[in-house]
Amino acid sequence: MPELPEMENYKRLLQERLAGRVITGVQVEREKSINVPPALFERSLIGTSVQRMERRAKHLLFHLSSSQVLVLHLMLGGILFLGTAEEKPERTVQVTLSFEALRLYFIGLRLGYLHLYGEREAEAFLSKLGPEPMEPEFTAGRFAGLLRQHKGALKSVLVDQSVMSGIGNCYSDEICFEAGLLPSRRCQQLSEEELERLFHAMRHVLSEATRYGGYMDMPLFPGDRLTGGYDSRCKVYDREGEPCVRCGRLLERSDVSSKKSFCCLNCQR
């Protein structure tokens, strides 16, 4: 599932390519992927332009000239592709937005969605999300205070979107490895030094993953050499049986609160 770095990468790349462009066509192949009747969805979008892109947690927001907002959550299996009809990948598309010959394909939205809201509706919809972990005002002290409030396992709390927004299965494991902590550790048992280390590990991992385009396996557009660049840099996630980059011991899968989790039982404590 795309997490903060993947959606931040999409946001930046789409901002460069779509800002100011007018939506000239809309095609909905799956009604369940949207929240209003297809005819209304089409009428509301055609003729409007994308003013700016925003990311909130794992959501991507398209702010339109009509003061409405498209809220996208890709969920598991969802991806985006921007190109012409001839360049479209052989994948099932649920929604297509056309910008003359250029088209934005929303692919794999079986669990995900593309909802249309007014600005206040969008704010209300996203209001239950926790703070953004990369915002400057989200300090180490605030981070520690949030984690101390929870008795659960570290991984479970890191992926809880009401605690902090944007972190999922992949980056929770990478953050724990960077900090040298087991994902199964209980938050209230962490020392001040461990919480400080965890905070800086989180900032480092999310920043580096965003810089390298996240771990998505398909380019956003033809010639895109950034998207997916972090996949080969993941140190533990989905690498069960591979040697640890620090100590050489084989990495293990050890599920935490029914969530798959990967770690090094030698390097992480």
From TrEMBL:
SMART domains recorded: Fapy_DNA_glyco, H2TH
Recorded GO MF terms: oxidized purine nucleobase lesion DNA N-glycosylase activity
Substrates-to-products reaction catalysed: Hydrolysis of DNA containing ring-opened 7-methylguanine residues, releasing 2,6-diamino-4-hydroxy-5-(N-methyl)formamidopyrimidine
PROSITE patterns: FPG_CAT, ZF_FPG_2
E.C. number: 3.2.2.23
FPG-type domain boundaries: 235-269
InterPro entries: FPG_cat (IPR012319), FPG_N (IPR035937), H2TH_FPG (IPR015886), Ribosomal_uS13-like_H2TH (IPR010979), Znf_DNA_glyclase/AP_lyase (IPR000214)
UniProtKB keywords: DNA damage, DNA repair, DNA-binding, Glycosidase, Hydrolase, Lyase, Metal-binding, Multifunctional enzyme, Zinc, Zinc-finger
Domain Formamidopyrimidine-DNA glycosylase catalytic: 2-106
Ranges in coiled-coil conformation: none
PANTHER family: FORMAMIDOPYRIMIDINE-DNA GLYCOSYLASE
Family: Belongs to the FPG family.
Designated name of the protein: Formamidopyrimidine-DNA glycosylase
Lineage: Bacteria, Bacillati, Bacillota, Bacilli, Bacillales
